Amino acid sequence: MGFGPHLVLALLEGLVTAATLSLTALGLSLVFGVMRVVNVAHGEFFMLGAVIAWAVAAGFPGEPALGFAAALVAAPLAVGALAYASDRLVLKRLGYDPEATIVATIGMLYILQQAALTFYGADARPVPAPFSVRIQLPWFGYSGYKLFVIAASIVLLAATWLVLSRTRIGLIMRATQYDAETAQAFGIPVEKVYAGVFALGAMLAALAAVLVVPISQAHYLMGRDPLLLSFIVVIIGGLGSLRGTLVAALLIGLSDGVVSMFFSPTLAKIIATLAVALVLVFRPQGLFGKPAR
Amino acid sequence: MTDAGKAWMLHVALIAALFALHFVLPAYHHGVLARVMVLAVFAMGYNLLFGYAGLLSLGHAMFFGAGLYGAGLAAYHLGWSVSAAFSAGILAGISLSLAVGVLALRTTGVAFMIVTMMFAQAFYLATLHFNAWTRGDEGLVLQTASRTLGSLSLADPATRYLAALALFSLVLLLTLAVVRSRLGRVLVAIRENEPRTIMLGYDTFAAKLAATVLSGAICAAAGAAYALLFGYVGSTLVSVQYSILPLLWVLMGGAATTIGPLIGTLLMYYLVDLSGGPLDRLLPGWHLTYLGVVGVALVLLILFFPKGILGTVRGRWLRWLP
Asked: What total of structural domains would you count in chain B?
C-alpha cells in the first residue's frame, strides 16, 4: 500500500475514534456545562457500559445481533440509573461544590473499578460484532461494522442535539445552565435537572462504549483513555460548549488516527496533553468557546 | 504557656516519640514507619499548597517524580554520590514546580486542577517514552553500593529509619515555621478570600508561586529520599494514583494542620495493609484491592468528615493547633 491508501485508512480509523469520542465527550461536556461538575468518574461509566454490554451479549449466545441490540438498550439504562443514584447520594449532599465533587468522583472512579474487578474480573473479554460485513474499497477491505459505528454515532449526536435545542426538556436544561438560581425562581426543579443531566451524561458514555466494545474489548481499566481524551476534547472545544466539543472531537479523533499511525503513540499523547494544558492556561474558554460571562 | 510554645513543644515531642519508636518497634512495623515518614513528607508538601493556600492540585505525582527520577537517574546512570543525587532531585523539583507554577497559577479552580493533572500525565508518559533511560514500568533498581553515605549504608533498616526521621523532622519544623510566618498567613488569607487579599495590597501571585515551589521542593525531597532509601525508581510511582494519594492522606489527617499529613498517611497505609487479610476472609473471591478501600475512604471523608481528624480536633478542643 502506498502513502495515499495508508492515509485513507488512518482517516477512517480516526473517524471511528472521533465518532465514539464525541459521544463520550458530549456527556462530560453536558455535565460540566449544566452542573459545573468535573466528573472524573466519566471514564468508568464508559467502562461499565462496555462490561454490561459483554454481560448482556453473553446472554444471547449465537445471536450477536440480538445481544448487541439488547446491550444498546440495557447498558445505558443501567449506567444512567447508577449515575442518577450517585448524584442523589453523593453529589447533591456536597451542594455541587466544584472541589468537593472532584474528590468525590475520584472516589467513585476507584469504587467502580473495584466493583468491575470484583464482579467481572481482570480479563479483557471480546464482544462479537452484530454483523461482519467487509466493504471492499479500491485498496483494501474495511470493516462494515466500523462504518456502522460512525453512522450510529452521527444519529445519536443528532438526536441529542435535537433534544437539547428543540424540546422542552432541552430548554429547561439550557435555562439551568444559563442561570440556575433564576431557573429555580421560575419553578424549574433544578435538583431534578442536575440528577437527570448527570444520568444523561453517563448514558452517552455507556452508549459510546457499547458501540466501541466489538472493536476493542471490555476490561475493568478501559475507562482511562476515554476519560483523558474526553477531557482533551472538552477543554479544546471550550468547557460547556457543545458545538466546540463536536469540532474538537473530530479534530482530536482524526489527528489521533493519523498521528498514531505515523508516529509513536506515547509521544503523540505527551504532545496532546501538554497542548491541552497550554490551551487551558492561555485560552481558558477553549479554542472555539466564548469567554465566560 | 503561649500557643506558639505549645505548638513547638508538641512537634518536638512528636519527633522524640518517633525516635523512641526506633528502638521498640518490631522489624515489620519499623520498616513500614520508615516508608510512611517519607510518604508523609510528600503529604506535607502537598498540604502546604492544598491545605494552606487552598490550591487543589491533581498533579503532585510529577513533583514527587522529579525528585525520584532526578535522584534516581543521577545515581544510576551518572554514578553520583547520595548527597549529590539528593540535591539533583530537589533541584529538579524546584525547576519543575517553578515552570508548572508560572503556567498553572494563571488559572484558578477547576482549570487549575485539570492543568496540573495534564502536566503530571505528560510527565508520567514521558517516563514511559524515554524507557531507554527509565525502563518505564519495570523501573530501575539502585544497587546497594550506590546508596552509601560515607560509611553508612542507606539500605540498612536502622540507618534508613533514622534518615527518614531526619528528613521528616526537618520538613515538619520547616512547615511549622512557614505556616507561622508572614507567607503562611498570606496563603491562608488567599485561601479564604483572594480578591480581598489583593485589595489589601498583597502580591498573591508571588505568594502562590512561592508556595508552589516550596511544595514542589518538599515533594521532590520525598521522591529523592524514596529513590535513595528504598532503591526503586519506576513509572508506577508517578502515575495519577500518586497524585490522588497525597490528597487522600491530607484529607484524612486534616487539611491545613502540620501533623495531619503524618496521621493520614499512617492510617491509610495501615488501613490498606491490614484490611486486605480480613476483607479477603470476609468476602473471599472479591479481589478487594487498594482501589475499593481508597475509593470508599475518599467518598466517605468528603461527605461526612471534610475537616479530617486533626481538623476536627482543632475545631472542637485544641484551638491552638497549627
From this structure: 1
In this structure, what CATH number is given to the domain that contains residue B62? 1.10.3470
Contact A94 B288 (CB under 8 A): no
Indicate yes or no: CB of B114 within 8 angstroms of CB of A235.
Answer: yes
Q: Which residue in B98, B99, B67, B246 sits closest to B167, CA to CA?
A: B67
Task: Tell me the residue range of the domain where B29 lies.
Answer: 3-316
Chain A touched by B255 (CB under 8 Å): no
Of A36, A110, A284, the CB nearest to B291: A110
Burial pattern B188-218, b for ≥16 Cβ within 10 A else e, equals: bbbbeebeebeeeebebeebbbbbbbbbbbb
B110 in contact with A at a CB cutoff of 8 Å? Answer: yes
* Percentage of chain A exceeding pLDDT 90: 38
For residue A60, pLDDT over 90 is answered with no
What ipTM was estimated for this complex?
0.83
User: pLDDT at residue A226 above 50?
Assistant: yes
B297, A107: Cβ pair inside 8 Å? yes
pLDDT tens per residue across span B256-284: 999 999 999 999 898 888 777 777 777 77
- From the list A106, A266, A278, which residue is nearest B244 (CB)? A106
Is the Cβ of B161 closer than 8 Å to some Cβ of chain A? Answer: no
Shortest CA distance to A15 belongs to which of A182, A146, A129, A132? A146
